[in-house]
Amino acid sequence: MAAPNHFLSVSRAGVLHARRRGEPPVAITRGAEGLEVAVPPGRLAAPTILVHFDYQRATPRRSVHVTDVTINGVRRPIEAFLADHEVTEGELGAWMRAAVEAALDRAALARA
To answer: Which of 34, 74, 89, 102 is deepest in the core (most CB within 10 A)?
Structure first.
């Protein structure tokens, strides 16, 4: 099982960075491009979504200020996406954590 994230933040340039304890930080993606997030089978009408975020001053570490979600090529504000697709913030957060963990796994393999 993957180690828990020790560090997760969005830089002023809008880049999501994460790292595990004892490992170097990894630039995951830019908020404008979006974090590609796998959706559990049958949960939504798309197998993946793009989660867009930005830098927000005073956002606590280990959290990300999500602004929009793109599903099937349509970009929607986060509140509308959550309501329209009956997704909870916790559920979206779990999907995002899985995407970040997968990116950290790929980075670790590349360093090995």
So the answer is: 34
Whether the Cβ atoms of residue 8 and residue 93 lie closer than 8 Å to each other? no
For residue range 78-110, list pLDDT tens digits in order.
999 999 999 999 999 999 999 999 999 998 888
The secondary structure element, H or E, covering residue 108 is helix 89-111
Q: Which of 41, 42, 43, 13 is nearest to 29 (CA)?
A: 13
Instruction: Report residue 97 as tokens.
Output: 């954590």
Q: Are strands 5-10 and 15-20 parallel, antiparallel or unpaired?
A: antiparallel
Give the rounded distance of the alpha carbon of 29 from its chain centre: 9
Question: CA end-to-end span of the chain, whole Å?
Answer: 18
Cα four-point dihedral sign 52, 58, 60, 61 = positive
Identify whether the C-beta of residue 39 lies closer than 8 Å to the C-beta of residue 47. yes
